[in-house]
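TEACHING EXERCISE
Course module: macromolecular assemblies
Task: Read the component lines below, then compare them to the predicted structure of the full complex.
Student: A.B.
Group: 4
Components provided:
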Amino acid sequence: MNLHALRRFAAALAAAGAALAAPIASGQQVTVITSFPKELTDAYRKAFEAKNPGTKVEILNKNTVAGVAYVRELAPGSRPDVFWASAPDAFEVLANDKLLEKFDPGVAGIPAKIGNYPVNDPEGFYRGQALAGYGIMWNTRYLKANKLPEPREWADLAKPVYFGHVATSSPSRSGTTHLTVETVLQGEGWDKGWSQLLQIGGNAAAITERSFAVPDGVSNGQYGIGLVIDFFGLAAKANGFPVEFVYPSVTAIVPANIALVAGAKNPDLGKRFIAFTLSEEGQLVLLDPKVMRLPVLPKTYEKAPKGFPNPYAGTIKPKVNFDANLSEERYYLVSSLFDQTITFRHKELVAATKAINEAAAKLAAKPNPQGEKLLAEARAIAYTSVVDEPKSRDKGFLAAFRATKKDAETTKRVTALEEHWSTEAKKNYARAIALANQAAATVK
Amino acid sequence: MTARPTLAQAAIAGAIALFLAAFLVVPVLAVVWIAFADGAGGVTLSHFGAFFGVSLLRESFWNSLYVAAASVLVASVIALPIAYFTSRFRLRGALAVQTLGVLPLVMPPFVGAVAMQLIFGRNGSVNLLLGDWLGVNVPFMEGLNGVIFVEALHYFPFILLNLSVALANIDPAMEESAQNLGAHGFRLFRRVVFPLAMPGYVAGASLVFVKVFDDLGTPLVLNVTNMLAPQAYLRITSMGIEDPLGYVISVIMIAFSILAMWLSARALRGRDYATVQRGGAAAPRRRLSRGQAVLAYGWIALVLLLVLSPHLGILLLSFSKVWSFSVVPEAFTLENYRTVFADSSGMIVNTLVYAGLAAFVDIVIGTTIAYLVLRTPLPGRQFLDLGAAAALAIPGVVLGIGYLRLFRGVEIPWLGGALTASWIILPIAYSVRRLPYAVRSCTAALQQLHASLEEAAENLGASRRRTIQRIVVPLMAGGILAGFVTSFITAAVELSATLLLASSESMAPMSYGIYLYMQSIAGRGPGAALGVVAVVIVAVGTYASNRFMAGRSAQQETKP
Amino acid sequence: MTEPVRVEVENVSLAFGATQVLRGIDVAIAPGEFFALLGPSGCGKSTLLRLIAGFNHAQSGHVRIGGDDVTRVPPWERNVGMVFQSYALWPHMTVAGNVAFGLEERGRPREEIRRRVADALALVGLQDLADRRPGQLSGGQQQRVALARTVAIEPRVLLLDEPLSNLDAKLRVHMRRELVQLQRKLGITTIFVTHDQEEAMTTCDRIAVMSEGRIVQTGTPVELYDAPASRFVAEFVGSINLLDGNLQTGAGEGATFVSPQVGPVPLPPSESLPGSGDVTLAFRPHGVSVSAARADPARIWLAGAVAEREFLGEFVRYRVRVGGADILVDAPHLTGAPWFDPGAGVEVGIDPREIRVLRP
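Instructor-supplied answer key:
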């Protein structure tokens, strides 16, 4: 390479660089910060750019929590225009920090409530853009290969037959898993809900580190059954993967939201983008086979493919009226409790479940009262949450977890509590194994 | 060589020092400072206390150490026999073994990881077959195992290549004298051959350790977040740039990178056996007995198969419509490539521009540093060399965090925004990360260039500047090109810093695009297709530079 | 110390691919003998040595050590000690560690190893350097460590592969004396490979001269020097004048040698004269004198002119042009002795007793 070539190369690079920088400098650009996958954002980007020639949609893909942090750290005037994500809590946080701007896109036909849950923020900071339900997704080939029945309810997943075939994530790692867990807890009640979660945890092949790992693993056959948000299941099915998805009766329908960011760079275009996503045209994009989300605009369902669930027409009957305040109140408690007793003690929990299942199988063949008593005891010890219902409602107790600015004292208290749960859980699982083994030993 | 440095030299050195300070030293120092700052201008260790108080972070710490160490171990188990067999025994298929040494490096580990999941996962091809035949299921890819497996398969060539060179450089008499005195078989290997090849092994192993310790993409793609790099990334992106624990993690990562390098340097001190060969011919290759031959060929075939599997997997995946619970995909399509070229061609262009720019900056700085260090009396010139080399110890995540912290408020007028929101930050990060390699190859090229060649030019009336232009740079071209290609291809698949610094899709390079695609079920195919494009770019770059180098050395041999 | 053994190589041939390196080698080395394999590089001498050590394998033939056929025995079971040209000291072990290696491989008790390492190092005078690393030693010291390492195992045979070639000239002379003393002290059968005829002649009892994979002559240093069997040996061992020509032997009396370059040369009667035919006359430069006029009638005189003169200290070497040939003459130098200048006409006198007649 001689110097002339180098010079020419440098000139070419500089030109290319300038070309890249050009669109960023122009004003006709709406910046959307979102946690949604690329297919969805690509579909909306293309649709919006086609409808508004000369405009560009810039997507900042960040997970919800990262998105909140990102917006927070930018100065007014340089912030992205639109915030678009699932978890309502994130929007609450942004609204509280005065990072959202009230705005009425003026679209008609969207109901105020889905079930008892308001579709839009009552204060008007953010609006529901799509609906999401939680359910069970499974790989039909996997189930067939392992001769497993199709599950219908959360309670099914607690059955011994599914031992080692279930996958779920942890609420501390993913907002959607948190909503799923909270749905179970609100639908079944604290104690029964935890018992179910612990049993499902005991059946789980993996507590994945990220929520997407669950649908991903189910669709490629690594796991048999997963607890997922509906569109993952529906999209995988629509793309030809051998999967099925059901809404259990204990489910909730919660909107995924969109909002205008306060101090945005280009608020007018942002407003236009939001209005577009809520329009009939924009809602139709949700039915793209790669996206497969439930629209908020009821009219859209007329164009939905056959068999597509319609929450407005009663194909999903959510039994749970999701209480967002309750969810937010005990957010850290639920996350931490799940991690300390399920995620971090997964090995021990699985061992306990295995021992219990084996004892149960033996007793089923040759029942005896003493063995059954021991087994019931083992179950009770293994599958009872270390925090009971009344405690979970104790405001002072919850306050420690919710403290946003944790001083050294609170941190110490919370850490001590977590260590306590962790050791309790470990002890309980060990005791359950011992009891289950005793129960099995009663069968001669 | 003139005795006194010129003003121009000093000015150029100053400019490079400024670049290094702005984009390497100060960002890293900022990270270190925040990890120790108590918020009131003082210094505290309480953040470190907090770090070790959080069980997840403690766990992450041990996991990272464990994964890095276990990856070194597994990579050694793969590489050691191959290096030994091929250097000491008569084996056919040397080409296959050479390919082995390069193949894994052309695919970024996080791309391979997805394919590995489909092939070696719980119900991947291999386990489905094993289940059918033997009724067993091997958890290759479960949790940390998966990370270790992927990393070891990706990085073992570092050990293989270094060890092969070291073995080739051992005077054959060293082994023969041991045989003569009664040693043979494994004892010969353990007592004489391996200790003598130790420098090469340690160099390779420490590189693997540092690389694995730093790697962000692989654990993330495999859904493992309880390691240090993912934790640093997640904390900084979700808790925000103010979270001190992210900085503590960064400091710990730097510390371990430096520690690993220091330990390897210490282990190697006074042990440079590489030049012990004295006029002897290459080691005579021994014949393998039938049993040994079966073992050796079997091992090489197995490793070749393993090494090929991610390539094969990603290729299959890129053409597949649906691949689920089956040994191979059942339906094939070109749709994924169409999607990629329709929606993400911008990312391909971005990658070429960023990696090209970064590589260009690297060779300019690399050549200049090499020249200043070797050919000028400029005081303190070694610090430039040292500064550039220091980038080796800085994980991509840490550099990214440092940039975010330092440059988020820095407005660049013509970019219309903060430096951290602009695409320019990516080529800068890439160039800093790859600088050590470029400096090394430029220095090597200049070292081989005898100073008398320049003196002859000066003697015939060429000025210093003209001499550099007409003699030094053309003669260094090979080394410069090698530096360019190395920087280019590694920058093209860099993910650690990219994940932190790429804020918008339009500025994102391919590595980020692959990662993004891999986050959804419908995106796996296009993600794989983009991965194949990346592999092709890297492979073409490697091949072209090898061709160029081969042609060049042939040319220089015929005209000495 | 074990009894010295005999080493026999019988009809050994070896090829590396298409290259025939050893062609039917037969040699027997007597117990306790200091034996040299001498030849130019590429003659196969190192290959033969490595074959005895077990590193090369003959396509045909046998190697016997002390009467045992070791042709198929691997190197590590032969118990022959080899000192390598590069010494091959392991840089990751200390001097003592190097010397102890072979004993450790033989599983000797720790105490015995300690004692024998000390003995071996004392033998070469390096007892104080036991804890050094090879890299910290001079070339001569390294050479001694290599020797100590080899003799420590009390090998049946000692093989030395160009052991002195990496030393500077002065040290080489010193070390070769030490080598001889050591060999005498140990009485061990020793095979010494070298390309330096001076080294071979000063150290060894017997020498085998090798060329192109064959042993061309075996004998004591004096035999090789005085009675080279071929032109190759004559040229390789010392300096020599060679004249090609035709020999015509008369009955009972002398003979006449006719060279196309120098014309007829009368030869006095001698038992060693072969019959008529093409031969080469060989005579060493120091057996030739140079003078202004023909002096001693017992010599064969030829007229010529000085072409070149070199002063070498002990003697002056003249290249004298005689007819179409050059004859080298070494004239002893004594203080004040007159020299002939280049161009001067001189008479060259050859001592007929020093002439060897070689058949081509």
